[in-house]
Amino acid sequence: MNAPLPPRTPAAGPPHDAYLPPPTAGPPPAGVSGGAYRAPDLEPPDVDDVSVGDLIGNVTRDLSTLLRQELALAQAELKQEATKTAKGAGAMAGAGVAGHFVLLFLSLALWAGLSNVMDAGWAGLIVAVIWAVIAAVLYASGRAKLRQVHPTPDRTVETLSQVPDALKGSRGGNP
Question: Would you say 152 and 55 are in contact if contact means Cβ atoms under 8 Å apart?
């Protein structure tokens, strides 16, 4: 089972929402996903009494918080994928060790049984060919399981791709 990802926390200090109009009541329009939706017909916030230094400080702090949260999200996603990989590899290794002993004794028994019917050298070769086929099937199965691992933190990549638009001041999809 996957561990839950860390929650996103608000930035320290005055929230960046203090400089934005309040969210509208009701759900956002179609095509606008989650978050605090801002209606496009509201006037921009009045920041006349806020110094440029304070605004830049708020933007810098919020950007720093955003990047820290994205790094934490990426770490959590990579940890989940690493856990899946380790579990798959561990299961394959355990099956390999147990199967080795079982098949070693079964191979010896088969070799001994075939030696009663034919030369011991030919019996050994037949057992080795059987093992080659089994090894190929196990390799293909393990390789298919390891290909199911996705090491890219998809949610982090998605949210980081939205950062440039946020820095440009886009609201509601209109630049």
Answer: no
User: Using DSSP, how many helices (H) and how many strands (E) does the chain show?
Assistant: 4, 0
Whether pTM > 0.70 for this model: the answer is no
pLDDT tens-digit map of 103-154: 788 999 999 999 999 999 999 999 999 889 989 999 999 999 888 888 887 7
The C-alpha atoms of residue 18 and residue 158 are separated, in whole angstroms, by 26
Give me the residue spans of the domains in the chain: 51-168
CA 13 remoteness from chain centre: 31
CA–CA dist 41, 28 (Å, integer): 14
Q: Give the SS3 label for residue 32.
A: coil
Residue with tokens 């070799």: 111
